[in-house]
Amino acid sequence: MEMFRRTYADINLENLIFNWNQIKKIAADDRFICPMIKANAYGHGDVQIGKTLEKEGANVLGVCLIEEGLLLRASGIKTDILVFRGFDKRGAEKIMEYQLTPVVSSWQQIQHLEAVADEPMKIHLKFNTGMSRLGFAPSEAEKLRQYFSNSKKLKLKAVLTHFTSGEDAASALGQSARQTQVFSQVFDYFKDMDVYAHLLNTGGIVGLAQLQSGPQIENPNKLLLQQKWGFRPGLMLYGYTGNELQGPAEFRAVMSLKSVVNNMRRLEVGDSVSYGSTWVAQRPSYIAVVPIGYADGIHRLVSNRGYALLNGERVPIVGRVCMDFLMLDATDVVEKTTPEQWVEEEVILFGYDDKNNFLSATEQALHTNTIVWETLTSVGERVPRHFRGLKKT
Ligand SMILES: Cc1ncc(COP(=O)(O)O)c(C=O)c1O
Questions:
Q1: Catalytic annotation present for 55
Q2: Which positions bear N6-(pyridoxal phosphate)lysine (predicted)?
């Protein structure tokens, strides 16, 4: 569709590949790595992200919904696709038809698959070790092992669980350590069945990298080092490691959310900005009007709190964010220039500008009392994704 406003998400696939290679370095061996590209690849565009990762050697991709898996298949992606959410009988039929690999969390799902499978089907088995969301109770491990030892149709490939607090994965004293203990006991039941195990999300991978890099952790979670459990990286693929964490190696933001100055207004002392007049000029001011708003995923909570980059400088968001616009106090940048020259000038809501100045999506998340996962996945459907470094198929 032709676009008439210059607001878009600039998706840098070279940065994605860089992050993918950083993750593979931490894996350091032939560990299972399932890049998570659910929720439209955390807002980045699942088809292009999936195709790029497939080309870079990923032999499995993780999605939540069957619908997401079908979209990837329709785009020509051939690699294994792991579907995490669960399914009913109709879903089981689609999984079979499109050769998706289901993550199984209940006996009922096993029955659905047995009913539709007309040839041997690979499955992964999920255990609940603390999330209390999906997965079998660990106490079912022995029964499940017996079941899958005998099933002719369902081929158990892997067992998995999910960290509730991956950020404490390096320590023997946290919730992750309790989960790794339980999961290790579960995995023991399946050891003679040629199955592998996976659980490390971004927090877990950061924790493992900390353990690998030396003895600085006082109470290390040794199980995490000893077991070659697989990775399921989501956030770090897209360049972030979470609100509280510093990355173990450099990661590069894949998405830069960009717009332009629509018009520049001169305000006198006492003039106000936007709904509710929550910001009032205390000095003669220049206000940049930017055509991006909460309908595009800029949360209204950044009103009078967040920043954007204009000409490489941080400028505050002033007044309430509107559905389609927000306003910046650009006075310090504009003073001593002609205001008109700023119209159509690029504005960065997060990510990099063309001179590599950076504003973190984590910072925008903190200003809105949320996490960077939500900031990225909130970028709206009406924001077009422009892909840099897209290779021809
Ligand atoms: C089952 C599962 N594995 C892995 C991930 C990836 O987590 P992260 O984005 O923290 O790497 C998620 C994300 O929510 C998930 O639900």
A1: no
A2: 38
